[in-house]
Design brief:
CATH architecture of the largest domain: Alpha-Beta Barrel
Number of helices: 27
Helix content: 40-55%
Largest sheet: 8 strands, parallel
Number of strands: 22
Radius of gyration: 26 Å
CATH topology of the largest domain: TIM Barrel
Structural class: alpha/beta
Number of domains: 2
Shape: globular
Length: 763
């Protein structure tokens, strides 16, 4: 038996974001279902071709999704809430019901509130949260996985399907009935999973990958106890199970996982390198160990020589029971580095995207099977890339190091308490009860995107571009005044992305042309690459904000992206601690915030939607992260006067367990996502008695559905029962960049009217 090479999953979007374009064309009615399914088949075929061409021993099937893999699992199990239409006994979930569950709207069927969406562990990918009820019935209600397996088999591939495990599915789901114990549903869920495994066995599948990433968490004992019984029941005579964990070490779950009645386990040895010895010591002598040694989450090239040493140690211990893989699915990596023609050659030589990572895995497997001399040239290239990166003068800047050395405790606190600042700010801003605002961005129209493209390609002069963007800002400000918003924004017409825009203006960042990764649904992002020390060498937002403020007497918010989000939503250098990189970003932002204040901007918003996302998966590791995450936010924001109001925005996060740290940020106003959860998230702020001001989002911007004034008023009434009206703001859940102007205008008019209704009721 040889050492096998495989991956846990491949990007679904296509090299040129074909999936995004196709799905959105279907939503818009430009193509029919047949065209949608045909393009999906092409994308799957290309993914499998690349894996087979690279030399992998399996192609992974089941990682393709039109929207989200957890939503796929919900559809397969028939978990469809009543508002989307009850499933008949033998009915499958159709594609439009699926899309309505994910986004609230599809070409057919009525608009309904979508399922909740939240972060996939500590990544910037968002999954759709399955919604369970006390009498939940699980049944096979989608043939998607089985159809795709047959499709791959017909193309001559050796197939390894992947599904989300039953306990991870339950853990990530929610019930609106607090009395429901999710584990009480496990018995019926296992029965449905057993039926799925029976079908896979009938398709002559040898190995099935079952993903149980919750095993990297510190689980309650009752959930740990459920694993052995679950996998004992799922055992099939001819179907082998590879249980996959990732994103962190197994920690206290190591012995549990190693002893489960499965045929192999996969562990993440990139984000959990220190677990190797413990895993080897607990692994029975008949089980496969899949070693995740190539990063599935970052774009840096693997150190082949160092990784080979690790794999050799494993090989010495377990002989032919070693498989080699990525740390997690390549869902989180761009597709192909060969599409990048503008990255400097030296920087490009340090990188590997998904296609290149396939090659790295195969090279490592060949080195183990045939000896390192069989791939000597590849090892030499890897060693040279490592050396040139270490010695590059592009990475280190003395001025940045000197600035970091001067940071002191006084720089991490405002001059006065919130209570004192609030009085000063109330006098300076003179805002009404329930002040209305938006989170920052307005729709990025085709005209705006074309302006940036023409400037980038040299077909538009700097002066002409500035004038065109100013016209967009002027229109946005005029419209906000007409609708009677209280605190205005300039709309961010000049910004391509909330992280990329700032990265382009900071030293130490690099950018790709096609480094797209999926964020949620059809939404893709192109994370910047932090390769060296970060510093601000010029102003980033000052002139745009000054111009916008000159157009109105109402307060204009300055908009910036926070240091933790700049860190988490980038591909970050791996040669220094993440907190040091975050501090460098914070110092750059501090300079920008002080200059905004000096130029008459009285309200400044520093967005930190990734604040909770950055938490380590194990709660015992939280304190260290939370300490530096709070400190870098305060380092960025605490250089201003009491009269300057600091806002922050966070979205799609559970706040209960980090509420003390959120309060420690000492932002004057925090805006959060609450509409999909019907204001449930505010309970954390009530229980904690959060002292500062809060803007709970009153409508879901991730859905094209426009809620009524009455719906928003009801949400505000709920909020006012939890938070004193004097400390409540009114705003959408998030930025409006992805929406169109028609629905944006309608929704904001309803929002302003809802705020006015609340003022009248209170008065």
């Amino acid at each position: 038996m040889v050492t096998y090479a495989h991956i846990l999953g491949f990007p679904r979007i296509g090299k040129d974001r074909e999936l995004k374009k196709t799905v959105e064309a279907y939503w818009a009615g430009k193509i029919d279902k047949a065209a949608l399914f045909a393009k999906a088949k092409e994308l799957r075929a290309e993914s499998w071709r690349l894996q087979k061409q690279a030399g992998l021993d399996f192609v992974t099937v089941g990682d393709f999704s039109f929207y989200d893999h957890i939503l796929d699992m919900a559809a397969m199990l028939g978990v469809v809430p009543e508002r989307f239409g009850a499933l008949q006994a033998d009915e499958n979930v159709d594609i439009d019901t699926y899309f309505r569950m994910g986004r609230g709207r599809a070409p057919t069927g009525k608009d309904v509130p979508a399922l909740e969406m939240t972060k996939w562990f500590d990544t910037n990918y968002h999954y759709i949260v399955p919604e369970l009820n006390a009498e939940q019935n699980f049944k096979i209600a989608s043939s998607k996985l089985f159809d795709e397996i047959e499709e791959a088999q017909q193309q001559g591939h050796n197939v390894k399907p992947v599904i989300v495990g039953p306990l991870t599915f339950l853990w990530l789901s929610k019930s609106r009935d607090e009395k429901v114990n999710k584990l009480s549903l496990l018995d019926n869920l296992i029965t449905a999973y057993g039926q799925i495994l029976n079908k896979l066995q009938a398709l002559n599948i040898e190995w099935l990958q079952i993903d149980e990433p919750i095993l990297s968490l510190e689980l309650p004992q009752e959930w740990k106890d459920a694993f052995e019984a679950t996998y004992t029941r799922l055992k099939q005579p001819k179907l082998k199970v590879l249980l996959a964990t990732y994103f962190d070490t197994l920690g206290q779950n190591t012995r549990l996982v190693c002893q489960l009645p499965v045929d192999g386990i996969h562990v993440d040895l990139v984000n959990g390198a220190n677990q190797l010895i413990s895993v080897l010591d607990n692994l029975p002598n008949y089980k496969i160990l899949s070693a995740g040694v190539v990063s599935g989450r970052n774009i840096w090239r693997a150190d082949l020589s160092k990784t080979y040493e690790t794999l050799s140690q494993i090989k010495d211990r377990i002989q032919d029971r070693l498989w080699i893989s990525t740390s997690c699915s390549l869902l989180h990596c761009p597709v192909d580095l060969q599409q990048e023609s503008k990255i400097p050659h030296d920087l490009k030589s340090w990188m590997a995207f998904s296609v290149q990572k396939l090659d790295e895995i195969v090279i490592l497997a060949k080195a183990i099977n045939q000896g390192p001399s069989s791939v000597q040239v590849c090892f030499e290239e890897s060693d040279n890339a490592k050396l040139t990166r270490q010695q590059s003068k592009k990475i280190h800047r003395d001025a940045v190091k000197e600035k970091m050395a001067k940071v002191n405790a006084a720089m991490l606190s405002r001059k006065s308490t919130y209570q004192t600042r609030a009085k000063v700010q109330a006098s300076a801003l003179n805002l009404p009860l329930f002040p209305t605002t938006t989170i920052g961005s307005f729709p990025q129209t085709t005209d705006i995107r074309n302006l940036r493209k023409e400037k980038r390609e040299g077909r538009l002069t700097e002066q002409a571009y500035t004038q065109a963007i100013q016209a967009e800002i002027k229109n946005a400000v005029k419209w906000q005044e007409e609708v009677d918003l209280d605190v205005l924004v300039h709309g961010e017409a000049e910004r391509n992305d909330m992280v990329e825009y700032f990265g382009e203006l900071l030293d130490g960042y690099a950018f790709t042309q096609n480094g797209w990764v999926q964020s949620y649904g059809s939404r893709c992002v192109k994370p910047p690459v932090i390769y060296g020390d970060v510093q601000r060498s010029k102003a980033m937002t000052i002139e745009w904000s000054k111009y916008a403020q000159s157009l109105t007497k109402k307060p204009m918010k300055g908009m910036l992206t926070g240091p933790v989000t700049m860190l988490c939503w980038s591909f970050v250098r791996d040669d220094q601690p993440r907190k040091d990189t975050a501090m460098q970003i914070a110092l750059a932002l501090r300079d920008e915030i002080v200059e905004l204040e000096q130029n008459g901007i009285q309200i400044i918003q520093l967005d930190e939607p990734a604040f909770r996302e950055g938490l380590p998966l194990k709660q015992s590791d939280w304190p260290m992260y939370l300490e530096w995450a709070v400190n870098v936010f305060k380092l960025a924001t605490c250089g201003v006067k009491d009269s300057t109001q600091i806002h922050t925005h966070m979205c799609y996060s559970e706040f209960n367990d980090v509420i003390e740290s959120i309060a420690a940020l000492d932002a004057d106003v925090i805006t959060i996502e609450t509409s999909r959860s019907q204001m449930e998230l505010l309970e954390a702020f009530q229980a904690f008695k959060y002292p500062n001001e809060i803007g709970p989002g009153v409508y879901d911007i991730h859905s094209p559905r426009v809620p009524s004034q009455q719906e928003m008023t009801l949400l505000l009434e709920k909020a006012a029962k939890v938070i004193p009206a004097q400390r409540l703001w009114v705003n959408p859940d998030c930025g409006l960049k992805t929406r169109n102007w028609e629905e944006t205008k309608e929704a904001l008019i309803q929002m302003v009217n809802a705020a006015k209704t609340m003022r009248e009721k209170l008065n």
